[in-house]
Amino acid sequence: MDSYPTQDSGLYHLTRNGWLRQDRAPFPEGRLETWSYQAECPAEDAKEQICLRRIWKDAQLTLQESEALRGRFGMPVALQTSRNITLECDV
To answer: Most distant CA pair in the chain: distance in Å?
Structure first.
C-alpha cells in the first residue's frame, strides 16, 4: 500500500528519438526541449496533480518541428483520467 501524499519531480528532455527523463546534467546530447515535471497525489482516491513546464528549447527548433515531435511522441506523461495535467511554457 502506498503512503500518501506522494510527490515526484524531475526533468524530461525531448529528442528526435523521443522523451528521456534525466534529472541532472549532463543532459542528453541532441535534446530539443527540456520540461520540468512536478507531480503530487494527496490521497489514494484523489487525482494526481501534474505540472509540466517547458524551461528550455533549442533556439534552432521551429514551432512546426516542435509540434511534429510532440505529435509523434506525445507529452512525457501519458494522459489519463486519473490525472490533472497543467502545461506551461516559460520559453
So the answer is: 46
Sorted by where each begins, the domain ranges of the chain are 6-89
The structure's pTM equals: 0.89
- The partner residues of 85 in beta bridges, in order of sequence, read 50
pLDDT tens per residue, range 3-14: 999 999 999 999
Q: Categorize the per-residue pLDDT at 84 as very low, low, confident or very high, splitting at 50, 70 and 90.
A: very high
The secondary structure element, H or E, covering residue 57 is strand 48-57
Q: Which residues contact 69 (CB under 8 A, 6 or more apart)?
A: 14, 16, 32
Asked if 55 contacts 19 with a C-beta cutoff of 8 angstroms, the reply is: no
End-to-end C-alpha distance for the chain, whole angstroms: 39
CA dihedral 69, 74, 54, 51 (to 10 degrees): 180
